[in-house]
Design goal:
Helices cover 65% and strands 4% of the residues. By secondary structure, it is mainly alpha-helical. Strands 2-1-4-3 form a four-stranded mixed β-sheet, sandwiched between helices. A hairpin with a 2-residue loop joins β3 (480-483) and β4 (486-491). The radius of gyration is 25 Å and the shape is elongated.
Length: 492
Amino acid sequence: MEIWAKCRAGFKNRLPQYMLNLLMLFIFWGGLLRKSYNYDTVYHMVVDDADVMTRIRGGRYAAALIDYLLLKLELRTTSNISITIFFSLIVFAAAMLIMQLIFERYMPDDKWAKAGFYCGLNLVFLNVLFAELLMFSEYSIYYALAYLAAAAGVFYFIRGKYLPMLLMYVTAVSFYQNAVVYAAILAAFYIYLDEKTLLSLRAVGREIAAVTTCIAIGALDLLSIRVLEKLNMIPLSAKVSGMGNMAEKLSEAAASFVSLNKNAAGIFPNLWLPLLFAALIWIMIIYSRIKEQNFLGIIFLFIVCLGSYILLYIIPFASIDFYFPPRLSFCFFMINGLLMVSSYAVSIKSLHRLLGIAGVFYIFIHLFFSGLIVSDHFVSNSLDEVYVNMLYDEIVRYENETGIEVKKLAVMKDAYSPSVYPQVDVASGQINERVIDAVPVSIVQVVTGRVLERVDMPRDIRERYFKDKDWDYFSPKEQIVIEGDTVYWCIF
């Protein structure tokens, strides 16, 4: 009874803090509570096994189990997307609270400084690239559980409770592998502050142990996929690890890092805002150290930041082909935020308020562009539905005129068919992608209820109607041809 009373009292004390986190998430991403999707979501809606085998092949065993149990109840995470996103935000708010508890004892006293400290911690889920995790409406709850478990693992780590830590890390990686990268970065910055910013053999040993533990658990999860493949328990996975062309990977990694600093991978205007934010923090840190004639802590912080940036690219480099979408790269802003959080320990107090103002201003920039992302997302989804309905109108008209039932769908793209609609201004990776050219059969089924068989586009149809064509608008009369029981669609 005493333990329960303590837990209840602790929850009551933290409830306002948790509710503030949830409010901030709703301000940023509440617009996505409306039904929204990307092409993975649409495919999940109609695939027979609710993506269970896909989850297993990706090493996401906890997600596979939940999807399997939901399917037994004739439910999917897409049965009500609004509810799924709502619970995702609830869980992300809990992960934010755990992060705040981890760094609580380093929080400054000044109100503006405290506001900046909170913004720095919360930036991980309140940044524009984080939007991609919520574009996957069918998987957003699993991302949330992954990062909650990872944060809990770090929480146990700093208290020396290593068995629960390992359990949390294993749980996190069984939802999503990138969660252990998040945990490693979180632990690295905590150790920096816990060691009072002083570089020592002990500090280096702790950093290596913390980071290696996280990465090893992620590696074991990937190894488990290979074992299941060798035992013929699952088909070959799409997650192919290997060295690949390292020079090419390094070039692509450098280009992506420049893009993140320049325009947040295409979301911000080309004003180098992320770089300017980080540079401002470093200028204040260096100024403080010069003023106090004490350069201890700067080198250690630089190493932690550099190591964290390297950790960001662990998963892309572990694959044959370099792939670094926003759902991986969003932790770039976590590093920005934790750099600001750490800067309070090595900057003079007279600069703390300025740091706080900078943090608040920076998060408002992300808020502005998050609003654009959300509005453009519904533009993209609406256009998908409009074009599918126009296709369906052509099918119904043909069937009424000929009496022939259309059963098949063949799709190709015209000469230039981008993954984003011209009407969408803010997009990156699978943020605000269009759906029709990725899963046309699935989107037709979801929007109209009509199930068509996907077939290849015959060469003679391609040559006769669509060869060398390039439209920049939707023209049903030109882009849709129906012959026999098959509709042929050239997507602009």
